[in-house]
Design goal:
37% of the residues lie in helices and 19% in strands. By secondary structure, it is of the alpha/beta class.
């Protein structure tokens, strides 16, 4: 008998308030966060980040672990349906996921997270995160490209998730300590739809930040007059943004990494893959550069 596609543990939920009790701060907040759970060395760092946000915004936190198993329907689309499938023993993977989720649950109770749940999913991790994160406000994963990354994690996991769902992805660097985020935020603005979506999705954090730096990278041309409009837009939301224009004409990705460090940011907000992913894979691009060399957590949206 094939295993069920996913299994969930009991859920501890706060009672949902009536519509009449909602106010602006509640609507402009994070309500549901999905965090990738496994037994890798980087799981603790991304869990700390997700927990910090869940506690700060009183959000519901979903710990999601995936066995990597694909249903027969997915497999048969890529091979000759006449060829019999080789049985795969997924019990070891299921056992590791179960143990990781048990640890997650213990940590949530110890840290005082009121609303959380665990989900064990019989799917590839990237596919599972994209599917289950669709009905959330944020997905938290770890950096998968560059030095110190876990070789057992698929290298395109962060970008695959963000390109295949409609919510932002928070990518935690593979090196460094990042227990908290959002006090000092760098925002990348290049007049693209992706950058605008990233900024819109990050407004809950931007409105609570002590300082926001609006980074405008000029790759050879003059800054557009509409760049000032973004600062005004943020100000109308109560965000005090300071404009920083990089006119060196260098690679935008490298400039963003450097500028986010120089301004002391603990978070970089940016749009992902404004050009086609194939073009960025062949020619390079800001998204790929940042994902490979990030120094601070990155909030990305596509």
């Amino acid at each position: 008998m094939e295993p069920a596609l996913h299994r969930r543990t009991s859920v501890l939920l706060r009672a949902s308030p009536s519509r009449s009790t909602y106010h602006k701060e509640k609507e402009m907040s994070l309500q549901t966060i999905v965090v990738h759970i496994d037994d890798s060395k980087h799981c603790e760092a991304r869990l700390k980040m997700a927990t910090h946000l869940a506690l700060k915004y009183e959000a519901h936190l979903i710990g999601l672990a995936a066995t990597g198993w694909l249903p027969a329907g997915f497999v048969r689309t890529a091979i000759d349906p006449v060829v019999p499938l080789t049985p795969i023993d997924i019990e070891p993977a299921r056992g590791r996921c179960t143990a990781a989720l048990a640890t997650f649950e213990q940590q949530m109770r110890a840290m005082g997270v009121v609303s959380f749940e665990t989900r064990l999913v019989e799917l590839d991790p990237a596919l599972a995160l994209a599917m289950h994160g669709m009905c959330s406000d944020l997905i938290v994963v770890s950096q998968a490209r560059g030095p110190n990354c876990d070789p057992s994690t698929r290298s395109d996991l962060p970008e695959w998730v963000m390109l295949n769902n409609a919510v932002p992805v928070l990518v935690v660097p593979a090196r460094g300590e990042f227990a908290s985020v959002g006090a000092r935020i760098a925002v990348a603005w290049n007049r693209s739809n992706e950058a605008r979506r990233a900024i819109g999705s990050a407004l809950p954090l931007l409105c609570n930040a002590d300082k926001v730096h609006l980074l405008i990278v000029d790759e050879g041309g003059a800054a557009a007059e509409t760049d000032a409009d973004m600062a005004v837009f943020l100000a109308r939301h109560g965000v005090n943004a300071e404009e920083d224009i990089d006119s060196t004409g260098t690679d935008a990705g490298a400039a963003l990494v450097r500028a986010s460090v120089e301004c002391g940011a603990d978070l970089l907000v940016m749009g992902a893959y404004g050009r086609s992913r194939l073009r960025e894979m062949v020619m390079g691009g800001a998204s790929r550069t940042v994902l490979e060399s990030m120094e601070v957590p990155v909030w990305m949206a596509h």
